[in-house]
Each structure stands twice: as C-alpha cells, then as structure tokens.
Design brief:
By secondary structure, the chain is mainly alpha-helical. 49% of the residues lie in helices and 4% in strands. It contains eight helices and four strands, in the order H-E-E-H-H-E-E-H-H-H-H-H.
C-alpha cells in the first residue's frame, strides 16, 4: 500500500462502521480551550472579535490611529511627513539636507512618480483640513514643478533636493491655518 493510498480523501469510518463528518462551529464550542500540553488557555482580548463566518471582525472606529485627530495633530503629522520627505538626512561633510523624496527620485521615472504621489498625499491632507482653492493651487503648483523638473535625469534629482516642495507646502498650509480661528 503506497503513500497515496494511505492519504485518501474518503471520510473516516467510526467504530460503528458509519462515516463521521465532524464539523465544528464556533457557536458549538463548549468549555475551556485546552492546549496540547493540557493547560487551559485563558480568554484573551480577542474574545468576541471573530464573526460567524470564522473571519476576524475589526472595529474601525476605535482602531483607526488617524481617525479623530485635531487640526493641530493633523498639521503636526503633515509637517513630520514633509520633513521626512525633504530634510530627514544630512549629506556627510556638507550642510546639504535631503529626504526620502530625493532618494526615491534617483530611480528613473518610477521614483519620480512615487515621490510626486507622496507629495500629492500632503495636498490631499491640506484639502481635508479645509484649505481654500488658492492655497491648494499653490501647493499643487509646487508639486507640479518638482515633479516635472525632477524627471530630468541628474539635474532633476539635484533640483528635488534643493527645491523642497513638501516643506514649502507645509509652510504655506501652516501660514493659512494660523490666520484661521480655532
């Protein structure tokens, strides 16, 4: 009898000779859960977080870290992302600062598209904060200039590092927010 014969897909037969079709549902489980060493597993924080189909149920109202942020918290996050994209690192031996935007931009075409998409996320956040059309237009202009000139192979990468569109956009948005009542 070969290995294939031993691992058949036929249902097992109980000692009574009838096939057993053991199907367990979460609603039918009774008693404590026991691990392989015979110890009881305590009910943890995931109790009740599984739905009837066996999948995990998420409560996005409490699990969303970006959900109910104040204007100042959102602006602080936006400024932190702008710093990460534009001025996070220093070129050793110089005073030239660059960010992830400059590193990603070194990848021809695709890197510039990704960097532009990250910059557009900042503009979308500004729109979500309620920035008016003239602020959004200036921000989009900065992103467009950086994106178009950044496509030029070597000079565009240098321009990306020196222009810092994300820091400019964060400054424009901060200036507008400071004029708004709280």
């Amino acid at each position: 009898m070969g290995m294939q014969d031993q691992m058949s897909t036929r249902p097992r037969r109980a000692s009574s000779g009838r096939p057993t079709h053991a199907r367990f549902d979460a609603n039918e489980a009774r008693g404590p859960i026991i691990d392989q060493d015979g110890r009881e597993i305590p009910q943890g924080p995931f109790q009740g977080s599984f739905d009837r189909a066996g999948g995990i149920r998420f409560d996005f109202n409490t699990a969303n870290p970006f959900g109910n942020l104040s204007r100042e918290q959102r602006m602080a996050r936006l400024e932190a992302v702008a710093k990460l994209l534009d001025v996070a690192f220093v070129l050793p031996g110089t005073n030239i600062r660059y960010g992830i935007d400059g590193i990603i931009g070194l990848i021809p075409v695709v890197g510039d598209l990704i960097a532009t998409a990250l910059s557009l996320w900042l503009v979308r956040e500004a729109r979500a904060l309620g920035a008016p059309w003239h602020v959004i237009t200036r921000m989009l202009g900065n992103v467009a200039v950086e994106g178009v000139i950044g496509m030029v192979p070597v000079a565009g990468d240098a321009f990306d590092v020196l222009f810092r569109a994300n820091m400019r956009n964060a400054k424009i948005l901060r200036r507008w927010l400071d004029t708004q009542p709280r």
